[in-house]
Amino acid sequence: MASHGRNNKILLDLVQQPGNNLCADCAASEPDWASYTLGVFVCLNCSGLHRNLSTVNKVKSIRLDFWDDSLVQLMQERGNSSARAIFEKCVPAFYYRPNHDDCMVLKEQWIRAKYERREFTGEQNEFLQTYTLDLFTSTLWKKGKDKKQYLRRIFQLSQKDFTLRYFTKEDSKVAKTVISMKDLNAYFQPEKIGHAHGLQISYLEDERTRNLFVYHENGQVIVAFFNAIRATRFAYLLKKHPTLQHSDLIHQITKHSLKEGYMEKTGPTQREPFKKRWFTLCSVTRKLLYFKSPLDATDLGAVFIGSQDHGYTVSESSGRCTRSGRWHCGITLETPSRQFVFMCEQEQERREWLEAFGKVISQPMTPEDYANEATLRRGK
């Protein structure tokens, strides 16, 4: 006869073992739920997504729910490592594995791809083959450049010439825009875009950053498009760096911004009025971009942030010397060519920006960083 206390203690011991001590799907620490059909330990957020797979999955709390002896034995026999060997056997190197702080659509589609569609077990090769086709086409809703409405557009990824094209009509022969994979980035921005499946695509055009904002009502479609972008970018990077290992290229495929938000900035003489701008900091490109608003198509400017060894520093500054500034939590960014002064509305925001700037400045510069620094200086 099953003992509630004894069986729950067994499960609590199991979840402390290596492999089980992180959520099987998003790597969150201290998972306290489990799928007793799949034999995996998951966090609270992922357990809710598992419930949506009710035809293939059942979940329980390892602390609060009653567990039969037979189900406890199943968890002892399986566990996260065993499940990963089955359900993640053939995950491509380019495929994005979500973390606990990623948006819901990424985590949901990762879980559905693993357990519902069984894309990575080696049984359903047609799913993975679509990512390596010469052409990958998807119809998405794209925000108009100067308008708020979203328009239906056809996007086409090519692994022949490593480009992303989009067309205004299905029968269009000429693409509206052709984007090289060289400087393309994509990441989900549901809160900024105002849609749970919102995806931001950024790229360089005439040394300025351009943004496209797209979504699709179907989560599987938008995540497949995102991973197709990653597949095409990965193919480009492999050709550009044939001697590097896959592991050296993964972090270069797509990247999240390190920090985003509003700050006020002044001009180069620091006598100009402060203006509110939307800032985006990327640790990989070492660029601080600023826009008039979060959904602008083109940046107003960019600041390269090098390393401390090359004359870049960041520090708190007083807001007393501001000219018409409404915010008074100041930050001073010193570069070899100019001093920048920014103002945050709240002290907490200033601390977050100082930490983000500090992370970039503490990183040594690469040869590509030096080239990017020189390019930005020439453009000024």
Automatic annotation (TrEMBL):
Residues 256-362 form the PH domain. Residues 8-128 form the Arf-GAP domain. It comes from the Eukaryota. Coiled coil: none annotated. SUPFAM superfamilies: ArfGap/RecO-like zinc finger, PH domain-like. Keywords: Metal-binding, Zinc, Zinc-finger. InterPro entries: Arf-GAP_dual-PH_domain, ARFGAP/RecO, ArfGAP_dom, ArfGAP_dom_sf, PH-like_dom_sf, PH1_ADAP, PH2_ADAP, PH_domain. PANTHER family: ARF-GAP WITH DUAL PH DOMAIN-CONTAINING PROTEIN 1-LIKE PROTEIN, ARF-GAP WITH DUAL PH DOMAIN-CONTAINING PROTEIN 2. This is ArfGAP with dual PH domains 2.
